[in-house]
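Sample pair:
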Amino acid sequence: MKAFLGMGLLGSNFVKAMIKKGDEVQVWNRTASRAKALEAFGAKAFDSAADAVNGADIVHICVKDDAAVNAVLEQAAPGLKADAYIIDHTTTSAKGAVERTKTWKARGFTYLHAPVFMGPPNALESTGTMMVSGDQQVIAKMESELSKMTGKLLNLGETEGKAAGMKLAGNLFLISLTGGLSDMLALAKAEGISGNDVLGLFNAWNPGAMVPARLKRMMEGDFENPSWELSMARKDAGLMMSSAEEGGKHLLVIPAIAAEMDKWIEKGHGSNDWSVITSDNI
């Protein structure tokens, strides 16, 4: 029998998928009505986290952050079955994941952080990507259980907290990507170009294919043989900002990048590849 704590959009759909596969699932949520709603799908809702985990061999949790995970697990602790496995899908700090692994092991339970790159539809369809790292014996025992929940289970090795760090890195990219797309749409609108035209551009031009090569170049520190000189990239950034301003639009990302470009040009790197501005962070 399983328990699931946290009936947000992701947790609720995980539970629905588990029930479809024939699992018996006990659920809890801080807002009780969200847990109660899952009873229509076959779950059993409880008013307390401790009651929800009572008798469960595996306890899944998906809440907001480190503080919420710690608080909910403390509430659940009196009802935890001896030797229960705690599987945490919350996006948290790596430090928090490492500390919880150690703390709950000392209390007689196994904690495994398993963050995901999955939206609610993925959770319902058991598609997407889930990551784990740490004790390989624990991961081996949980592999079958976790593989049922996702299209791809990535084992990142023995380093505790690595899965948490990778999840944050991935989310950082997604946030940056969204900010960049926002700037692109703002500039296009300032130039009288429709969003559909921008979308159509990607049918012919796929900048995503450049990502691995760009990342590899940055990691190798190959800035002396530019494909786009910093001074020229800064010129283009200036055009972007002035065009957006003239069109009454506000850019989110480009002004901050332009400011960093100015710093590196002042240090004499104008003829280097523009990605030299990243070198202090690599």
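The two ends are 45 Å apart (CA to CA).
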